[in-house]
Design brief:
single chain; 269 residues; 2 domains; 6-stranded mixed beta sheet; 10 helices; globular
């Protein structure tokens, strides 16, 4: 079975369907204490299921980014367990950071190709994969451009394409659109949901925006102040596709109010 065929197994999942999907990642009783003595996470439990789009919300410094880095293997837990199912193989995790972190001396195509070059993938396969990844994010004509020629939104699309070039099952996104203007951010939110629906990834998305989380997610996890742990889980069982009409609907407004209340309680705690 190819990745595209496998992805099609989990199309347009709703929250009401989520519990029926197999688990992809489970974090159990995770503590993380850094060398400085900072206790970032305490007894954090979290489950991601195939095809979900889950957003992490919480106060600044509550450990949201640390959760992503733990799943990606960039840092290790002090205590607790991270369990990956057999559906998630090595190399099948894509990471999009808050800043695009592109190599300024390299073309867009070369930036996107970097993960495959590091793995020793041959030139022909790399060129094909890069072309496909750029086409997915609407940058097929920008392959020969350099980062300084791109807008902020285009740079972030390149960063997303670089994460997608390995065709991951799990996509970790750490506030990728936070530095963009509201119009660009809304447009990229729409494009991200379109890509997620088309390809069936599991997404864990860190954001500080209640509005963005409600628009994007099938489920929202709210974390407490440091040391972080999940204190609220809010399903977003709204239909797909979502568009501007959804942003102005009573359902959206009510969900934003519910999530905002949960976030205020988490910050107070």
């Amino acid at each position: 079975m190819t990745r595209d065929e496998d992805s099609a197994t989990y199309p347009r999942i709703s929250q009401s369907q989520a519990h029926e999907q197999p688990e992809l990642v489970r974090l159990e009783a995770i503590d993380k204490v850094f060398a400085s003595g900072t206790r970032a996470l305490a007894q954090l439990d979290l489950v991601l299921r195939c095809g979900e789009f889950v957003s992490l919300l919480g106060p600044s410094g509550c450990g949201k980014s640390t959760v992503l880095r733990l799943i990606a293997g960039l840092v290790q837990p002090t205590r607790g367990r991270i369990l990956f199912t057999q559906r998630l193989q090595a190399g099948e995790i894509g990471f999009v950071f808050q800043e695009p972190t592109l190599m300024p001396w390299a073309t867009v195509a070369a930036n996107v190709a970097l993960p495959l070059r590091l793995r020793g993938v041959d030139r022909g396969r790399t060129e094909k994969a890069v072309a496909e990844a750029l086409a997915r994010v609407g940058l097929g004509s920008a392959a020969r451009a350099y980062p300084h020629e791109l807008s902020g939104g285009m740079k972030m699309r390149v960063s997303i394409a670089r994460a997608l070039v390995t065709r991951p099952s799990l996509l970790l996104m750490d506030e990728p659109f936070a530095a963009l203007d509201e119009i660009t951010r809304a447009r990229l939110d729409e494009e991200l949901t379109r890509l997620w629906q088309a390809h069936g990834w599991t997404v864990l998305f860190v954001t500080h925006s209640v509005f963005e989380a409600v628009y994007l997610s099938t489920r929202i996890l709210v974390m407490s102040a440091r040391p972080g742990r999940v204190v609220a889980e809010i399903p977003v069982d709204a239909p797909w596709p979502r568009d501007e009409d959804f942003r102005t609907s009573p359902t959206y407004t009510a969900l934003c109010r519910t999530v905002s209340t949960a976030l205020r309680r988490a910050m107070a705690a």
